[in-house]
Amino acid sequence: MTVRPRAQHLGMVGCRVCGLVVSAPLQSDQRSFCPRCRSELQPRLAGGSARAWAFWLAALIFYVPANLLPVMDIRVLGGAQHAATILGGVVDLWRDGSHGVALVVFVASVLIPTVKYLALVFLLLTVRHANGWARRARARLYRWLEAVGYWSMLDVVVVGLLVSLVQFQALGEIQPRAGILFFGMSVVLTMLATQSFDARLIWDGEGDDTV
Amino acid sequence: MRTHPSLIVCPHCDAVYRRPALAAGQVARCGECDAVLHRAARLDMNGWTALTLAAAILFVLANAFPVISVGMQPFRNDATLWQATASLVHGAWAPLALPGVAVAIVAPSVQIALLGWVLLFAWHGRRAPGFRLAMKALDWLRPWSMLDVALLGVAVAAIKLAGMAEVAIGPGLWAMAALIGVTAVTAKGDPRWLWEATE
């Protein structure tokens, strides 16, 4: 099979912002800018995967307290006070009989973040120890991460809504707890990590692998 | 620096192609990594302008009418999109309100405003003042605009509260749902054609 030409081999760059294809000087010490939108042209994102690794690690660190600490404190009128963690919120919904919603929240708040951490580290490791293995599948995995990652913001929105809706009511009290801030930070950081990963790295070194 | 308007580079794998001629609504995919290379706009400038105007109106409606109302007789608390997300901004829990406000209010409204501004001038074949900055901002904002997540959030919050209060859905919620549909092709879509349309 013939290898399709890559922009980098032809001395070209596709602008990430406006899509214009430009022949750009390849010296790495010289910065060049898109003549149309003036964004910096980067044949590959500067610093390789270092930035993505940094965001990934920071996100992972925030993810621990996000799950261990309660995200809110619920005091129903005439009922007991109870602190809910992310996972606890899912269990509560399930126990109240809202199985469908419990499942949705479980997918957005537990499943997607977990899969995202694993998938990101998998992508980062496989581009580092570059080989031609399953490139298409890895590219697809990355696009999936980009497409679904932001749904994890669901719990942040829900806690914010619950707190503000119940705030001035006589029917009880819902107070946010620190866990939700850690959770929100970790979601934002994983989104930044995903954005900082250069998917083009998956395809680099194509000529020199499995012959 | 030479530019190659007839070429297209896959943003996900760097493969180079000749720009395909597509009919409206057709999508060209990369033969290597299967990413979307180029999506021929389903709508022309009229369509984009109409949808952007519709989005602006729907956004106002979602903030003028309650999306949800919570209460126990005789107390009811009607909350618009703005009230539901932003009422914490002034309290000690402001940091908690900020992400919600950013993704459900700020990002979508700025997107709609920027698109409207750019389209207003594009109608006359011109680039609006600040066109570059507006287009960059639109590109940057896209992943952070999350009305769909906010809508699901309202639904989940409504179900969680149903156990302790009377919960009703307001007309603002339908405006919000329509807004998501309308912005799916514009604000959340690909406005890159505007670069060529205003050249």
Keywords:
heterodimer; A: 211 residues; mainly alpha; Butyryl-CoA Dehydrogenase, subunit A, domain 3; 2 domains; three-stranded antiparallel β-sheet; two-stranded antiparallel ribbon; 7 strands; 50% helix; elongated; B: alpha+beta; 7 helices; 51% helix
Describe the fold and architecture:
The complex is a heterodimer of chains A (211) and B (199). With 211 residues, chain A is mainly alpha-helical. In chain A, 50% of the residues lie in helices and 11% in strands. Chain A has 2 domains: 1-43, no CATH class; 47-203, Butyryl-CoA Dehydrogenase, subunit A, domain 3 (Up-down Bundle), CATH 1.20.140. Chain A has helices at residues 50-68, 86-95, 99-128, 135-148, 154-166, 178-196; strands at 12-14, 21-23, 32-33, 40-41, 72-76, 81-84, 172-176. In chain A, helix 1 runs antiparallel to helix 3, helix 1 (50-68) runs antiparallel to helix 6 and helix 2 runs antiparallel to helix 3 (99-128). The termini of chain A are close together. Chain B has 199 residues and is of the alpha+beta class. In chain B, strand 2 and strand 3 (16-18) form a beta hairpin. Chain B is elongated, with a radius of gyration of 20 Å. The two termini of chain B are 18 Å apart. The model of chain B has no long low-confidence stretch (mean pLDDT 88). Strand 2 (21-23) of chain A pairs antiparallel with strand 1 (2-3) of chain B.
Major protein interface: A-B, 73 and 64 residues
- Roughly how many Å apart are the termini of chain B? 18 Å
Q: Taking strands numbered 1, 2, ... along the chain, how are they ordered across the largest sheet of chain A?
A: 6-5-7
Low-confidence stretches of chain A: none
Taking all residues together, what is the mean pLDDT of chain A?
Answer: 85
Find the count of extended strands of chain B (DSSP E, 2+ residues).
8
User: What would you say the CATH architecture of the largest domain in chain A is?
Assistant: Up-down Bundle
Instruction: Indicate the radius of gyration of chain B in whole angstroms.
Output: 20 Å
Count of the separate structural domains of chain A? 2
Low-pLDDT stretches of chain B are none
Tell me the distance between the termini of chain A. Answer: 10 Å
The best one-word shape of chain A is elongated
Determine the strand fraction of chain B and express it as a percent band: 5-15%
Biggest sheet layout of chain B:
3 strands, antiparallel
Widest β-sheet, arrangement of strands of chain B: 7-6-8
On the 0 to 100 scale, the average pLDDT of chain B is 88
What is the N-to-C succession of helices and strands of chain A? EEEEHEEHHHHEH
Structural class of chain A: mainly alpha
Give the helix proportion of chain B (percent range): 40-55%
User: Strand fraction band of chain A?
Assistant: 5-15%
The portion of residues assigned to helices of chain A is: 40-55%
